[in-house]
Structures are given as C-alpha cells and as structure tokens.
Design goal:
The protein is mainly alpha-helical and 89 residues long. It has a domain of 52 residues: Winged helix-like DNA-binding domain superfamily/Winged helix DNA-binding domain (Arc Repressor Mutant, subunit A). The chain is built from four helices and no strands. α2 crosses α4 and α3 crosses α4. 12% of the residues are buried. The model has no long low-confidence stretch (mean pLDDT 86).
C-alpha cells in the first residue's frame, strides 16, 4: 500500500510557484497605477465592480475598462518577458 501525503509540498512545485508569483508581481509593477489597482482589487482581492467603483470614486464602466485594459497589457508584458527569459508555457 502506497500512501502519498498530498499535504506535503513538492519542493520543485513550491519553487515554481514562488517563481510564478515573482513573475506576476514584476508584471503588475510595470502597469500604470490605475490599471494595477483595478486588477489587484478585482482579481486578487475579489471585490465586486461596484465596490471598486465606490472605493476609487469612478464610474463602474471605468473600472471595467481599466480591468480589461490592464489584463490585456499584463498579458502582453508577461508574454514578452516569458519569451525573453525562455520560459516554457
């Protein structure tokens, strides 16, 4: 009987997760403050669009636009960095 303890992290997987997190943080830092803030509040904090709009004192449509533009810009940045670093997908 072979029991694998799923709660014990695989060291390689843990290192990959740290690297991926650093990679994402670097990408977020390259965004404008407005785009970064909207993405962090929505995608990392899980806030609702209207709550973000209220917090930032902007219309909900502006929040959605910033999130969309930010995601697109972040994707482009990460793809470029991945190509430069020769990282696998």
């Amino acid at each position: 009987m072979n029991i694998k303890d799923e709660k014990v992290p695989n060291p390689q997987r843990a290192a990959e997760q740290v690297e991926a997190s650093r990679f994402l943080q670097d990408g977020l830092q390259a965004l404008s403050p407005e785009l970064k803030e909207a993405i962090v509040l929505r995608d990392l904090e899980g806030m609702a669009y209207q709550d973000i709009a209220d917090m930032l004192s902007v219309p909900e449509g502006t929040v959605k636009s910033r999130i969309n533009r930010g995601r697109l810009e972040l994707a482009k940045l990460l793809m470029k960095r991945r190509a430069i670093l020769g990282m696998s997908v």
